[in-house]
Amino acid sequence: MNNTFEFTLNDKTTTKLASYGELLNKDKMTMVYEALEQYFEAKDEEFAQKDPMTNLSYDEFWDDIDLDE
Q1: Strand residue runs (E) in 7-65
Q2: Per-residue pLDDT tens digits for 11-33
Q3: Phi first, then psi: what are they for 51, rounded to 5°?
Q4: CA gap 32, 14 in Å, rounded
Q5: Which residue has the higher pLDDT, 54 or 3?
Q6: What tens digit of pLDDT does each residue of 44-69 get?
Q7: I need a labelling partner for 14 at 20 to 30 A (CA). Which of 22, 23, 31, 45 fits?
Q8: Between helices 28-48 and 11-24, what is the axis angle to 10°?
Q9: What whole-number distance in Å separates Cα of residue 18 and Cα of residue 44?
């Protein structure tokens, strides 16, 4: 199933898309799709590391706890 979305990118981003598109010989939509896939994978990994009971990652949970007494 394909959905259509409209969004606006700033000049800096569109310039980079065009430049990298030429360097990599890829079209803009392929690069946007790949970037979103990498973003989703990173977020999935981040969420997987969070404790479902606290919604904090391991480091966030232990960050402010002082074990030295």
Answers
A1: 50-51, 56-57
A2: 999 999 999 999 999 999 999 99
A3: -75, 120
A4: 11
A5: 3
A6: 888 877 666 666 777 777 777 777 75
A7: 45
A8: 100
A9: 29
CA–CA dist 58, 62 (Å, integer):
6
pTM of this structure: 0.64
**What distance in Å separates the CA atoms of residue 64 and residue 50, rounded to the nearest whole number?**
16
At 40, the amino acid letter reads F
Q: Are 49 and 59 in contact (CB under 8 A)?
A: no
| 44 burial via Cβ count (<10 Å: 0-12, 13-18, 19+) | exposed
**pLDDT of amino acid 32:** 93
For residue 57, the surrounding DSSP H or E stretch is: strand 56-57
